[in-house]
């Protein structure tokens, strides 16, 4: 270890081995309860929705049930809309926005669409307020069959039979100040690369699929969210987090090539939300509301353009 390194774990220029990963894991502290915050909220939905365990993760002595919430009036002739949150456990409004949508609005789509909602993909990381799982793996770069990340493998297995039936998939995320202070430095250290500081955008934005862009869909969602919270402006290079701006509040990634959650299925309409919870212009409730507005707009647009 080097005291002059940009991250407390690792040696400059050397990827982490087992010793460094163990040192990193020892630094992780449980800050909140998946059972209290998420499972208890899902339990309250059981009288209106079908709730099942689609998998589980076991880390040391900790067992986490992975739950999916589905429309009770599921019909094969209805379009399928997928909502995922908590792929990165520290991105709080993704989890609580999905739960808020289920509690307040999901019933509005009864008889119109099949809803499949996974509020918290990564429970261990939710409790640690972290991006990675305990193996220092980012679930959102590992959504492949037989993934080394158990959280990712379980979700891929759940959605695999529905790959060609999904019409819309919205994956709920946040971009936080800790991306720049903790998670990007940790990533660079883990991979033995130099850390290059970036810029955190102040506001909400979306990530489109570079290989199947849907600009009108993205614009519709952005317009809906703009009524709830502010949209992130481009930086001086006309970019957001290093990606060129396609339109106000929208960038694009090759989601399938990068094994991102929004690319698991072949949904025609796919997007990844990014909320900025550290903004002085947004409260935690506004962040949740922005996620809910995005979900509702995404479903509404897909229903209107099947």
From TrEMBL:
Obligatory cofactor(s): Zn(2+)
UniProt keyword terms in alphabetical order: Hydrolase, Metal-binding, Zinc
Sequence ranges assigned to domain Peptidase M14 in this UniProt record: 30-306
GO MF annotation: an example: metallocarboxypeptidase activity
Tree of life domain: Bacteria
Annotated CDD domains: M14_REP34-like (cd06231)
Active site residues according to the UniProt entry: 274
Residue spans crossing the bilayer: none
UniProt xrefs under InterPro entries: AstE_AspA_cat, Peptidase_M14
Claim: Hydrolase is one of the keywords in the record: yes
GO biological process, one term: proteolysis
Family: Belongs to the peptidase M14 family.
Official protein name in the record: DUF2817 domain-containing protein
Record organism: Dyella soli
Lineage per the UniProt record: Bacteria, Pseudomonadati, Pseudomonadota, Gammaproteobacteria, Lysobacterales
